[in-house]
């Protein structure tokens, strides 16, 4: 199946803060990305769902 992969590079800071703290930071980055993503990316997300 065709798919689009968006990679978010992670700094060592995310990993050194511990798994839970790093996970919260990653979710914050992802939510910020989704909130400011272009309409075409949101369209791709809706097609996948």
Q: Which percent range fits the helix content?
A: 55-70%
Tally of extended strands? 0
Main structural class: mainly alpha
* Overall geometric form: elongated
Radius of gyration: 13 Å
- Biggest sheet statistics: none
Name some characteristics of this structure.
single chain; 49 residues; mainly alpha; 3 helices; 67% helix; elongated
What does this structure look like?
This protein is mainly α and 49 residues long. The chain has one domain. 67% of the residues lie in helices and 0% in strands. It has three helices and no strands. The protein is elongated, with a radius of gyration of 13 Å. The mean pLDDT is 69.
Task: Explain the layout of strands and helices.
Elements: H1 12-16, H2 19-36, H3 39-48
Task: Give the structure's gist in a few sentences.
With 49 residues, this protein is mainly α. The chain has helices at residues 12-16, 19-36, 39-48.
């Amino acid at each position: 199946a065709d798919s689009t992969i968006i990679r978010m590079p992670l700094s060592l800071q995310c990993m050194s803060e511990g798994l839970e703290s790093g996970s919260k930071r990653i979710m914050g980055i992802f939510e910020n990305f989704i909130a400011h993503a272009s309409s075409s990316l949101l369209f791709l997300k809706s097609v996948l769902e």
